[in-house]
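Sanity check. The docking grid for fe (iii) ion depends on where the pocket ends up, so I'm generating a full predicted complex first rather than guessing from homology. Inputs follow.
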Amino acid sequence: MTDIDENALFNITLGLYVVGSYEKKTGREVGCIADAVMQVSANPMRIAVSLESNIYTTKCVKEVGELSLSVLPKNTSAELISEFGFKSSENTDKWNIAPFYKDGKLPLLKDCIAVITCNVVDEIDIGDHIIFVCEVKTAKVVKGCEPLTYAEYRKSMRKASSKEKGSGKRWVCTVCCYEYDGDIPFEELPDDWKCPCCQMGKEYFQLQ
Ligand code: FE
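Predicted complex below; grid placement will be based on this.
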């Protein structure tokens, strides 16, 4: 394991996407953030979307066999990423955070670069993620601007939360890259303190 530097993997270029789907029984919209999305075939036109195995949106995609993608632009708010990326659709109506519309039963963001709807044609269980191989049903450019990359997202999260307190110590959330900069020393925060960005506990922070 010592031969693996995770920072090397962060140099693989990824985008950020909101994946949409719905509950089979109720039709209620669900969704999450995905970074591992790519086109894998042109004819037929197919994309691969890798989602965490244990999340609620994945469960719904498995049941209904379809999903949508909204391609996020550079100026996407941290709130939207936090809502879709770090909460569960099981108990949150995430789509309330932004204007959206539906194509059939699939929810899509109004403010994004492009929207794609797909049918799932195959599922590959690869460990803690499932790769959904999807056939593209519809694809549309919404507005021409630059897409947000995962690397830029990580960089902007650091910038937004870093205020140089001068201690030299930086406690950084390993989930969302939020950098703690409060007046109370990090070690003295209560045990139930949570990352203000992704809501994960103190144990997810690392001293850097
Ligand atoms: Fe966080």
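Relevant for the grid: Residues 150-161 form the longest helix (12 residues).
Also worth noting: The chain has four helices and eleven strands.
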